[in-house]
Specification:
Elements lengths: L4 E5 L9 E5 L5 E4 L9 H4 L2 E5 L5 H4 L2 H8 L5 E7 L2 H10 L14 E7 L4 E8 L6 E8 L4 E5 L2 E9 L3 E9 L2 E4 L1 H6 L7 H10 L7 E3 L13 E3 H8 E4 L3 E5 L6 H11 L4 E5 L7 H7 L4 H11 L4 E4 L9 H12 L5
Parallel strand pairs: 3-4, 4-5, 5-6, 16-17, 17-18
Antiparallel strand pairs: 1-2, 2-3, 6-7, 7-8, 9-10, 10-11, 11-16, 12-15, 13-14
Helix pairs in contact: 8-10, 10-11
Bound molecules: zinc ion.
The site of zinc ion (ZN) has 5 residues, from helix 2.
């Protein structure tokens, strides 16, 4: 399988949190958190379509100004997600500038801000450049199963963590890769066509094996006359299925039992886990009073979640020059060697 998500930290693990998830074969990207963005080239910033923000401490949210500055004057829409109160905070940030010159722009850069409340309800507002970025089209939202965004091929999920204030962890998950085996298709005398998209969607949605799927034998064949197969038959004969990728982002969370369970649930089986490792375990008391994880705690959570790769970040500046100690402590715990 060719991995689609290419995630990486934008800044040093000692600097502002921000993970850039580049999409292969698609001029597009998503972000986890919105710390300082100046390390990203403009062309990469302009690819961003969705930004998932844990909470609005300044080091996680300061990049909004840079983002707006680069996107202004372009026909572009960006979706931002954050915790309770987030829509108002986006509005206040935008309202701190004077927008008298934007009303006759040719383009309408738009931010759609969504906040997610602890009970799974939420709120979305649009902020259009052409209307001076005032909130409009505000709608109530409701999210089930933690899913806050889905589109063809992928979805984003969140879980609420306790950082003395709400802090959201996120995962970005690809749906199953459904590859059509062309030579097997030909053996059955079938032709490629839109019907294969219906088959892929039915498999990704977990439809039962006896679901009927109408195939196509020749280009231009009327849709109603093609032979009908069951989903189970087609999956057996013309399809190869591979699991999709999963990238998980966890930051600013106290090491409580409830947080740990939620983190492990969200991150289970992830290909990449980006997780804060703010303190060394020697300073676990300090970590507890600041509601952060130690490197050892982060490694243990990664181990419990059985992730394939773990990338620590959000190191406290007190360890400047000692980043390798933090990484080593996390690796040890991840490998099961810590007390
Ligand atoms: Zn933080």
């Amino acid at each position: 399988m060719t991995p689609v998500f290419h995630p990486s930290l934008v800044n040093s693990p000692f600097a502002d949190p921000c993970v850039y998830v580049d999409f292969l074969f698609d001029r597009r990207a998503m972000l986890f958190d919105l710390g300082t963005l100046t390390a990203l080239p403009t062309r990469k910033v302009l690819r961003i379509s969705h930004i998932f923000i844990s909470h609005t401490h300044i080091d996680h949210f300061i990049g909004l100004d840079h983002l707006v500055r680069l996107c202004l004057g372009r026909q572009k829409q960006i979706h931002l997600f954050g915790p309770a109160g987030f829509v108002d905070q986006v509005w206040h940030r935008l309202a701190s500038y004077t927008w008298n010159l934007v009303y006759n722009y040719d383009t309408d850069f738009t931010i759609v801000a969504t906040e997610i409340l602890p009970d799974g309800s939420g709120l979305s507002s649009e902020f259009h450049c052409l209307h001076g970025f005032r909130p409009e089209n505000t709608v109530a939202r409701h999210f089930t199963g933690g899913i806050i965004h889905h589109e063809e091929g992928l979805c984003a999920k969140t879980t609420l963590l306790d950082h003395k204030i709400p802090s959201l962890a996120y995962s970005l998950e690809e749906k199953l890769h459904v590859n059509i085996l062309k030579n097997h298709l030909e053996e059955l005398g079938l032709e490629v066509g839109p019907w294969l998209n219906k088959l892929k969607t039915a498999i990704q949605e977990g439809k039962p094996d006896n679901t009927p799927i109408r195939a196509c034998r020749a280009k231009g064949e009327p849709a109603a006359t093609g032979p009908v197969f069951t989903l189970g038959e087609l999956r057996e004969r013309i399809v190869k299925i591979e699991p999709g990728q999963k990238v998980c982002y966890v930051t600013d969370a106290a090491f409580t039992q409830k947080n740990a369970e939620r983190i492990v649930d969200l991150a289970r089986g992830a290909d990449y886990l980006f997780i804060e490792a703010t303190f060394l375990d020697d300073d676990s008391d300090r970590a507890a009073t600041r509601h952060h994880l130690t490197a050892s705690q982060a490694g243990k959570l990664a181990r419990r979640a059985e992730v394939a790769r773990v990338i620590p970040f959000h190191f406290s500046p007190r360890y400047t020059g000692r980043g390798n100690e933090i990484t080593a402590e996390l690796q040890q715990a991840w490998n099961g060697f810590s007390p």
